[in-house]
Each structure stands twice: as C-alpha cells, then as structure tokens.
Design goal:
alpha+beta, 2,3-Dihydroxybiphenyl 1,2-Dioxygenase, domain 1, binds cobalt (II) ion
Length: about 130
C-alpha cells in the first residue's frame, strides 16, 4: 500500500538555527521558512537525493506541535510521511485492520497542497504516520 518515503518531519524550537545546521554543517539544499497559519507551524523543507526533511517550528497559540516540544525540549522526530496512491482507499483499508485515523478521518490539504491523513502513533510502533496522496 505505502509507496515512497515523502519526508521525515523534525520538530524544532528555532527553525532558523535548525535550517542553518542543515545548510551550513550538513551541506543540504534548504528552502526558505514558510509560515503556514492554517497548520500552526512554520516549515522549512530540506531536499535530499532520495527524500525530504521537514523542519517544523510552532506558530501561534494552538500549534499542533507545542505539546511535542514540551515533552521533547531539544526537538525531535515528529512524524514520517509515506506516499499512497489513493488516500481514501488507504484509509478504509487501514480502518478495517483496526488502525485509528486522527481527527474526523477526512483527508485535509497538507503543507504540500496534497490530501493528507495522520494515523495514531500507538498503532504504528510509537510513530506518528502521515499519509500523503501522490
Ligand atoms: Co509532514
């Protein structure tokens, strides 16, 4: 069902500092920081030869990553994102096998303008999983 690893997301307190680390120390191709009001995060994308890294910094009062950073004050891996061909079909298959889909279960438009869903970390070895339609 799942295809390519689209990205690994890392939550950070200081996105400028984290972006500089990837650009200057690791020598990666790093995008500008983009505030995403609708998602409560500022994002930076780092393009690697085989996948991307998504840096996430909280934005606004109700950021979905605020609690994660309380528990992980140094930042840390927040989720992995796998590509799927048909997100609704993938959701229905996963639900039948007992996996929990977060929110109301309907795909939302994610940071790349494509439909996404999140799966409960307790059902996936303690890892928050994002599915993105290709
Ligand atoms: Co993501």
């Amino acid at each position: 069902m799942i295809g390519r690893l689209n990205h690994v997301a890392i939550a950070v307190r200081d996105i400028g500092k984290a972006a500089a680390l990837y650009r200057d120390v690791l020598g990666a191709e790093v995008s500008a920081a983009v505030p995403q009001q609708d998602h409560g995060v500022t994002t930076v994308f780092i393009t690697l030869p085989n996948t991307k890294i998504e840096l996430l910094e909280p934005l606004g009062d109700n950021s979905p990553i605020a609690k994660f950073l309380e528990r992980n004050p140094d930042g840390g891996m927040h989720h992995v994102c796998y590509e799927v061909e048909d997100i609704r079909a993938a959701r229905d298959t996963l639900k039948r096998s007992g996996a929990r889909v977060l929110g109301d279960g309907e795909p939302k438009i994610g940071a790349h303008g494509k439909p996404v869903l999140f799966l409960h970390p307790k059902d996936f070895s303690g890892t928050l999983v994002e599915l993105e339609q290709r």
